[in-house]
Amino acid sequence: MTSPSNLPSWGALQTHYEQIKNDTMRASFADDPDRFSRYSMSAAGLFLDYSKNRMTDQTLANLRALADECELKSWIQRMFAGEKINFTENRAVLHTALRNRSALPVLVDGEDVMPGVRRVLQKMRLFVRSVHNGEWRGCTGKRITDVVNIGIGGSDLGPYMVTEAMVDFACPDIRAHFISNIDASDLVHTLGPLDAETTLFIVASKTYTTLETMTNAKSARQWFFDETGKQDGVARHFVAVSTNSRAVQDFGIDPANMFEFWDWVGGRYSLWSAIGLTIALRIGMDYFEDLLAGAHAMDEHFRTAPFHENMPVILGLLGIWYRNFFGAATYAVLPYDQRLHLLTDYLQQSDMESNGKSTGRDGRPVSVDTGPILWGGPGTNDQHAFYQLIHQGTHLIPADFIVALEGDTNLTLHHRMLVANCFAQAEALMKGKTADEVRVELSAAGMSPEDQEKLVNHKCFPGNRPSNMILMDKLTPHNLGALIALYEHKIFVQGIIWNINSFDQWGVELGKKLAMTLLSEMEGEQQPEQHDSSTNGLLGLYKIRAR
Ligand code: F6P
Asked: Ligand 1: which residue has its CA nearest to atom 9?
């Protein structure tokens, strides 16, 4: 495929954008009482209201034409069929196989991967059960009470986000902790309160070479030795999740205590694999499989639904509309759920590591903007932080609101207020507030017309700021699985339209190597000379001060 900007549908979208760019959603809602029912849908336990977008039927038709011209349907089939669509790493992209609940085989190089997937799930189930029922004990015979996941990026963010989100489903006897940063304070403060005799470490790394994870794992092992004095206790306190069994063995972990996964699972798509072991230990294997089932339901929807009622396709195409035609450089994800406080961090890796690319699949520089900057955080907290900029700043920031209709506590008033705030923000962003409306308010408050005019512009809201509303009945493992898969597929759709490979991460690979040169220079006696004067100067300061 050539650049999407050369396609007829791209030109049609540009023309269409010029025609409707000044239309207001306020007017569209006034003109069409059915707008909500026409632009909302359900799938896999989620409900999407996308009526508060700056679009018409024609916009959606043009966007679907773009998807067709980019051969999105065939790319979806190719991904699910295990084709090596991650061509720069010569890998299939099959996180969907990890949650395949059907009996259908999934072939990579002619081999069905499903028996291996089921074998590892069964191994996880047995292990989780043995930790929970106390068959698996620490080296001094005590039950495991604390699980520490050591990993980074996809080997941390997914398990961390999900265990936080699933707090209401957690086993009370097992606590989960996460160490990711090379900054020793992460490790020291996490391990400080723990009892080594009742702590189990999960060293999670696809490659088992990542600097942060390996350094933290070695320091954790040393801490364990120092605390227990038992060099032979590693087998009861360290298990690994990796694709690299040789490196796991070299680290001193018995291969029997390794949970395998495969090179066709991308790091940021890996929480569905044994990388989810910490999740399973925290919430139990049944709930972990509910998470997989929710994702599978969304996979089936994505794979089979026609584009006009396909939730990830609709969200992906609307994202293209704002990114490439309105020039929106960022978009916000706003979960109204404190349990989802890590969702934005998680999605930042998912989206920005996937679509933060500037080389097309043809090896040439892209000619259109690609992945937006994703940011956000939980409401209502962030209403008191950055919402001001979304409402009245100079940027157009499309937003996704996410909220469960039912809360999980007895404090129903809190939940009603939470949902009310969520809906109110979306309404306010869409409607804005006109000068006349402000004047009416100020008059009612008794302000003189003269004083009103001093304030009126400050209190106006431009409105016409788009948002999607994603609802679920409750935040359950199933619905969370569906939500994460929804975003994964949305990212896929956009990568296909932009004609980029969403599944490699060469920019990050570079970062993994860069610091090593400097590290060896910091440890050496020589003054480094081969860098620019700034880097040389900084290294010099370090050598003088950090002795
Ligand atoms: O951040 C880059 C990355 O390659 C991610 O894609 C991956 O999730 C993370 O590093 C950790 O890698 P590993 O699981 O191999 O330690």
From this structure: 153
Strand order in the sheet with 467-472: 40-43, 46-49, 467-472, 399-404, 330-335, 373-376
> Tell me, what's the pLDDT at 515?
81
Write the residue with the smallest CA distance to atom 10 of ligand 1.
Answer: 153
- Do 63 and 318 form a contact (C-beta atoms < 8 A)? yes
What pLDDT, on the 0 to 100 scale, is given for residue 161? 98
Mutate which of 181, 210, 216, 491 to test ligand 1's pocket (most atoms within 8 Å of Cβ)?
Answer: 210
In the chain, helix, strand, coil percent, each to 5?
Answer: 55, 10, 30
Give the pLDDT score at 26.
97
pLDDT on residue 20: 98
Among 124, 414, 444, 415, which Cα is nearest to 286's? 124
pLDDT given for residue 508 in this prediction: 86
The answer to whether the beta carbons of residues 62 and 16 sit under 8 Å apart is yes
pLDDT at 527: 65
Q: From the CA of 158, how far away is ligand 1's center (Å)?
A: 12
Cβ atoms within 10 A of the Cβ of 289, count? 20
**Which residues are catalytically annotated?**
353, 384, 512
Could you give the 3-state DSSP secondary structure of residue 176?
strand
Distance CA 547, CA 543 (A): 6
Centre of ligand 1 to C-alpha 205, Å, is 7
Ligand 1 atom nearest to 508, measured from its CA: 2
> Who lines ligand 1 at CB under 6 A?
152-155, 205-207, 210, 213, 267-268, 353, 505, 508
- Stretches where the chain sits below pLDDT 50 are none
Residue 449 pLDDT: 95
Q: The tokens of 371 are what?
A: 């992945």
Cα–Cα distance, 301 to 403 (Å, whole number): 21
- Residue of 152, 182, 512 best suited for mutating to test ligand 1, as the one with most atoms within 8 Å of CB: 152
421 phi and psi angles, rounded to 5 deg = -65, -40
Angle between helix 506-523 and 533-545 (nearest 10): 50
Tell how far the Cα of 55 is from the centroid of ligand 1, in angstroms: 38
**Residue 374 to residues 11, 75, 164, 268, 352: CA-CA distances in angstroms?**
27, 24, 20, 15, 7
Give the E-state strand segments of 336-484 in sequence order: 373-376, 399-404, 467-472
With H, G, I as helix, E, B as strand and everything else as coil, classify residue 71.
coil
Which uninterrupted H or E stretch holds 259? Answer: strand 258-260
- Give the single-character DSSP code of 323: I
Q: How far is the CA of 536 from the centre of ligand 1 (A)?
A: 29
Pick from 268, 350, 488, 510 the residue to mutate for probing ligand 1's pocket: most ligand atoms within 8 Å of its CB: 268
